[in-house]
Write a structure and sequence with these properties.
By secondary structure, this protein is an alpha/beta fold. The protein has a single domain, classed as P-loop containing nucleotide triphosphate hydrolases (Rossmann fold), CATH 3.40.50. Helices cover 46% and strands 17% of the residues. It is built from nine helices and eight strands. It has helices at residues 15-26, 33-42, 46-55, 63-74, 92-104, 119-127, 167-181, 183-190, 203-213, and strands at 3-7, 29-32, 82-86, 109-116, 129-132, 138-140, 159-160, 194-198. Strands 2-3-1-4-8 form a five-stranded parallel sheet, with helices on both faces. It has a three-stranded antiparallel sheet with strand order 6-5-7. The chain is globular and about 45 Å long. The two termini are 21 Å apart. Bound molecules: adenosine-5'-diphosphate (2 copies). One adenosine-5'-diphosphate is lined by residues 11-12, 16, 33-34, 37, 54-55, 58-61, 66, 87-88, 90, 94, 164, 173. One adenosine-5'-diphosphate binds at residues 11-12, 16, 33-34, 37, 54-55, 58-61, 66, 87-88, 90, 94, 164, 173.
Length: 218
């Protein structure tokens, strides 16, 4: 059976950072709903325009369009062996939809690592985050700088600061997370799928803990 992992955690907890490392180690696909929306914005699609109107304010994009977008992505051939879901699901309605779409593929969510980091650290992480234009690889000006300033180590593309990574919008996103996404912790805990991971550790230590949770040896 394919492996589908849901990475849960606040904005800035390290989901994207860890997903990029884990796809190398596991060969699973990476599905980041935020990256998919940003691709739509860049390509100036109708969905991109709609998504931008929510993202720029730090609010969630409506469930129906988000679910349809992820469903299309998860049906692609590179997800057949499984995928790491990063940033989706983010509401109970999305969590129910994730279950249905995976069941339709004859599968289910395997494990849900929940990366925890104190709020005051999250703001510093988000406001210092630099993201690569080509593939969404992430860096931090202090905690995880690229080898060459402004350039992605992996694909050489330009690094930029996301419009929603200001202190003000980051605070709003943390409130939205507490209201809309926190209920998922109990949802997955009740299903015995949740594994808590200390996110306030060096990046490689968080990866080590995740590999243990996923039962994968380095
Ligand atoms: P998320 O996808 O959960 O929003 P990211 O992976 O984009 O989080 O990480 C947010 C920021 O924090 C990025 O700038 C990243 O480089 C940095 N970061 C990620 N993990 C760590 C860590 N363990 N320690 C310090 N900084 C980190
Ligand atoms: P972060 O890594 O900081 O948590 P993301 O890239 O995951 O940020 O998300 C950026 C924005 O994209 C969110 O603030 C929200 O507006 C939108 N978004 C991403 N995923 C979802 C989702 N599953 N449901 C609704 N909105 C989403």
């Amino acid at each position: 059976m394919a492996t589908y992992i849901v990475l849960l955690g606040s904005p800035g907890a390290g989901k994207g950072t860890q997903a990029d490392i884990l796809i190398e180690q596991t060969g699973l696909a990476h599905i980041s709903s935020g990256d998919l929306f940003r691709e739509h914005i860049r390509s100036k699609t109708e969905l991109g325009q709609l998504a931008d109107s929510y993202m720029s304010k730090g609010e969630l994009v409506p469930d129906d369009v988000t679910i349809a977008m992820v469903k299309e992505r998860i049906s692609m051939p590179d997800c057949e062996r499984g995928a790491i879901l990063d940033g989706f699901p983010r509401t109970p309605v999305q969590a129910d939809a994730a279950k249905i779409m995976l069941n339709e593929l004859g599968s289910d969510i395997t494990v849900v690592p929940y990366i925890t980091v104190p709020d005051e650290i999250l703001i510093a992480r988000l406001s210092g985050r630099w993201t690569c234009r080509a593939s969404g690889h992430v860096y931090h000006n202090l905690y995880s700088p690229p080898l060459k300033e402004g350039i992605c180590d992996i694909d050489g593309s330009e690094l930029y600061q996301r419009d929603d990574d200001t202190v003000e919008t980051a605070k709003k996103r943390l409130c939205v997370y507490a209201e809309k996404t926190l209920p998922l912790i109990n949802y997955y805990r009740k299903q015995n799928r949740l594994v808590e991971i200390q996110g306030n550790q060096p990046i490689d230590k968080v990866t080590e803990d995740l590999l243990v949770a996923l039962d994968i040896k380095e």
